[in-house]
UniProtKB/TrEMBL annotation:
This is ATP-binding protein. It comes from the Bacteria. PANTHER family: 26S PROTEASOME REGULATORY SUBUNIT (PTHR23073). Keywords: ATP-binding, Nucleotide-binding. The lineage of its organism: Bacteria, Bacillati, Bacillota, Bacilli, Lactobacillales. InterPro entries: 26S_Proteasome_ATPase (IPR050221), AAA+_ATPase (IPR003593), ATPase_AAA_core (IPR003959), P-loop_NTPase (IPR027417). It comes from Vagococcus coleopterorum. SUPFAM superfamilies: P-loop containing nucleoside triphosphate hydrolases.
Length: 368
């Protein structure tokens, strides 16, 4: 009974203060304590806990309750999407595919976890370079859990509402918590970055503290996802608060193969598998977003002007400028000769790449 006694005053106080988060946490503690002695009551409490908010979404019929706005009421602070029709294919690295699957499974079995007095994980920190798919992953999770995605871009909130940041963020957090949803904090490092800036240090410190407290007590039926390109800027206190931290990495070769195939082979023209293989093994430092961009630019050329898909793709690789590799043209020519068209003459290579014959000659000579 000891545990229950300890939690009861907290529970009652929280109930009077309308502090839902503490009500949830104290109830979980009580479920755990009761589980052995009085399973019936434990079950009853856990049913209450799992269900009391299930009607809540009715109070925010999707897109009807106004989203929080800045003081002048002009700009909405968040973007609201339901992602019901997110049907894009997502290719996940083996390294974290299982973590994501488990996270989703946990959400499905939330009530079972609560039955045992175990809080389901609900916070996720995604970090990695631009274009690796952090936002994409948040949308995917929103689709799979059928929860609306509420996006708050912290970098714009902080810079454009200087002085009112704390109030704005608090408003968004309250809005997100009101019914089951995913709050997506994009550019999360904006919070940390500005901590060195003395001009609004006090305000930002307060904001960070508000956020940390919220993270601890985020309601079970809400998910919080944060994304950043600069994990090194987040301090330990923030880092520790997330249940799961996932490094979204650039794709390895097998994933690059799937991505090139998916984005380039769209029924416009037939694509030689060897060419997909050549792209995946030659361009090693690309993000899914680079692959998507090069492929669509190349298919546009193909549809509008015809020609060969190989030439169009190589043109797009050079033009889109997403690969900052020293001597990219030479690398492409050498790899083509070695791995794709072994019997090609210099003239063939010039035709295939669209590069002048003299350059082809020079690249191959330098390589010998
Ligand atoms: N795992 C993936 N599978 C398939 N396509 C992907 C994947 N990841 C990213 N993409 C493609 O790349 C695009 C850009 O990805 P996204 O915007 O999610 O990157 P990001 O990590 O959020 O980048 P940033 O840090 O710049 O915000 C997506 O719209 C999608 O077309
Ligand atoms: Mg993003």
């Amino acid at each position: 009974m000891n545990h229950i006694n300890k939690n009861l005053p907290n529970l009652i106080k929280a109930a009077f203060e309308n502090d839902i988060e503490t009500v949830e946490l104290s109830s979980l503690n009580i479920i755990r304590a009761l589980k052995k002695e009085d399973e019936d009551t434990a079950k009853k409490i856990s049913a209450l806990l799992s269900n009391y908010r299930s009607g809540a979404s009715l109070t925010r019929a999707f897109g009807q309750e106004p989203v929080p706005r800045d003081e002048e009421g002009l700009n909405s602070l968040v973007k609201l999407e339901n992602n019901e029709d997110f049907s894009s294919k997502i290719f996940l690295s083996k390294k974290y595919e299982e973590t994501i699957d488990n996270f989703l499974k946990n959400r499905e079995h939330m009530e079972k976890l609560i039955d045992f007095g175990i809080a389901p994980s609900n916070s996720l920190l995604l970090y990695g370079e631009p274009g690796v798919g952090k936002t994409f992953l948040a949308k995917y999770i929103s689709n799979k859990t059928q929860l609306p995605l509420i996006t708050l871009d912290l970098s714009s909130t902080i810079s454009s509402y200087l002085g009112k940041t704390g109030k704005n963020i608090k408003e968004v957090l309250d809005y997100a918590k009101r019914s089951p949803s995913i709050l997506f904090l994009d550019e999360f490092d904006a919070i940390a970055k500005r901590r060195d800036d003395s001009s609004d240090l006090g305000e930002l410190k307060r904001t960070v503290n508000v956020l940390l407290k919220e993270l601890e007590t985020w309601p079970f039926d809400c998910i919080l996802i944060a994304a950043t390109n600069h994990p090194e800027l987040l301090d330990n206190a923030i880092w520790r608060r997330f249940d799961l931290k996932i490094e979204v990495e650039k794709p390895d070769k097998s994933l690059r193969l799937k991505l090139w195939k998916y984005y380039l082979d769209r029924g416009v023209v037939e694509i030689n598998d060897d060419f997909i293989f050549f792209l995946s093994s030659t361009l090693t430092d690309v993000s899914p977003s680079d692959i998507e961009q090069i492929s669509s630019s190349s298919l546009q050329k193909q549809i509008v002007s015809g020609g060969s898909i190989e030439t169009n793709t190589i043109k797009s690789i050079i033009e889109t400028n997403v690969i900052s590799e020293h001597n990219l043209k030479k690398k492409l020519v050498v790899a083509l000769k070695k791995e794709y068209e072994k019997n090609a003459t210099q003239r063939d290579l010039a035709k295939l790449t669209g590069f002048p014959l003299s350059s082809i000659n020079r690249y191959l000579k330098e390589e010998e």
